[in-house]
Amino acid sequence: MEAVHTQGILFAETLQERAMSQEQLWLVVTHMGDPKAAFLLLFPFTYFVSRRAGVAVLWVAAVSEWLNLVFKWMLFGERPFWWIGESGLFVNKQPKVHQFSSTCETGPGSPSGHAMVTAAVWWVVVSSLGSFLYSRTHSVVLSVSPYLFYVSMLLAIGLSRIFILAHFPHQVVAGSITGFILGVVLNRRVPEGRPLLFFFGCSVAMVLGALLLHAALQQLGIDLSWSIALAKKWCSRPEWIRLDTAPFSSLTRDCGALLGLGLAQYWKPGGWSLPWAPRALSLAISAMGLYHVNRLPLPVQPQGLFYGLFFVKYVIVPQVVMVLVPGVVHLFTHRKKKD
């Protein structure tokens, strides 16, 4: 792997050298590929276009991110920004690379979570859109265009992760391929209309599965906090280390979102039936609501409190999108129409 990692560093060095003038663009792209964007941006947008697609996006995002956590714990992938220092190969000649505010993630690096979750959730969107376009136009060229966008987006997000030194190229490729497979498989098994007990069971199973794996690896003498220690050691600025990039943050996000999805379908089975104009209004209000939910400051100490509140935050997300906002919009638009 040493040769693979070295070539990855050289590729990142070349990429930064040639594309540093587009630094802000790469940072925007990497934020678009952040797994939380699937929960806070893509989910509400797709839900108000197609209820089934929205539920599928949330389902696929939660399961694929949880599996990414499991893979990372088992594969122990390095990250470029700390491997440069830990390898000892660049003592005499340091590579000309720079870190950024999004570089210093604390989990292991393989496979790339950004690439994996993005590939999984966007497959739901592009496959649905491609089928819709073909059914309406019977144009192969037009129906293929979403898939070309899909490949282009994965390439851009992968390059952005390499550019900021968060991942090696092989980790991005592995994440993209794994995410694509998960997207295809999970999109066929969307739990639309399943009882609350199903989602509660999934949420509990995710927690117990992750904790059992964590305990088993510790029993084998494997310290799963190794990546956090290396991130803190080699990150250029301490303030770039964020608790919401830690492995247990993604676990609580996934479990909270699935439980929230079950609660939303329990409170309002079938969802609210809205015309296109109220749907657009609901999307706008939901986006503003989730923006403020995401910005809620959480105490980082004690960590148990942080993870508990982080869990609650993502339980709230489906309630806002699927129940609260469309319910209020329906109430006012229906009353206005009745008057």
Automatic annotation (TrEMBL):
Q: Where in the cell is it found?
A: Endoplasmic reticulum membrane
Any single GO molecular-function term of the entry would be: glucose-6-phosphatase activity
Task: Supply the alphabetized keyword list.
Answer: Endoplasmic reticulum, Gluconeogenesis, Hydrolase, Membrane, Transmembrane, Transmembrane helix
Keyword Membrane, does the record have it? yes
Enumerate the SUPFAM superfamilies for this protein.
Acid phosphatase/Vanadium-dependent haloperoxidase
Q: What is its EC number?
A: 3.1.3.9
Membrane spanning stretches? 56-76, 115-135, 147-166, 172-190, 197-217, 305-329
Q: Where is the active site?
A: 114, 167
List, alphabetically, the GO terms of the cellular component aspect: endoplasmic reticulum membrane
Pathway the protein takes part in: Carbohydrate biosynthesis; gluconeogenesis
The biological process GO terms on file are: gluconeogenesis; glucose 6-phosphate metabolic process
The Phosphatidic acid phosphatase type 2/haloperoxidase domain is annotated at 53-187
Topology of the protein relative to the lipid bilayer: Multi-pass membrane protein
Cite a single Pfam family from the UniProt record: PAP2
Q: Where, by residue number, does substrate bind?
A: 79, 161
| UniProt similarity note | Belongs to the glucose-6-phosphatase family.
Q: What is this protein called?
A: Glucose-6-phosphatase
* Gene that this polypeptide is encoded by: g6pc3
